[in-house]
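G., the chain you wanted modeled:
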Amino acid sequence: MKKLLLILALLVPISVSAHGGAAQITGNTVVFIKQNPLSPLIGEEVFASFVLRDRKDVSRPLPNTPVRIRLIDTFYGDESKDQIILTKNIKTDANGAFEFRYTFNKQNYFDIDLTYDDPETGEELETGYLVYPRDPREVVDYKALPVSAEQKEYSWILVSFTSGIIGLIAGVLLRRKLK
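Predicted structure as tokens:
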């Protein structure tokens, strides 16, 4: 029975949910970043959470750390045209965390820059990441695309074949178990 469960577990597809987590090492810190939605649309509020931790011991948060957040509307190929559209000064909470929310009004690359002092050296550190809100008119709705009769037929064949293989394996294992 354990073999049957193992085989079924291997054959069943696994789904993974991602909400845009990443980490960046800067100086003696690690900045953990989580963004939701991962691929935002214009007019959709983007929620980003940040956690600052000690690089040598990531279980140690950096509480009450002053952080300057700058949101920059970037221009590819010419940094002189970049425009700072928002600046915020905040402090991390007891867990070394803070949150940032913003609704982007156009399709472009936006840079979220963080500036803070290194906890060991006092040196000013800067890190950040890009957000690219997409125009909803350019998003393809794959569910609305037409599916041909041939494609539907092949999907049924694939489902039937997979079910048959699973049934065959289960039958063989069950027969061995009963002997």
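The two ends are 13 Å apart (CA to CA).

Shout if anything looks off.
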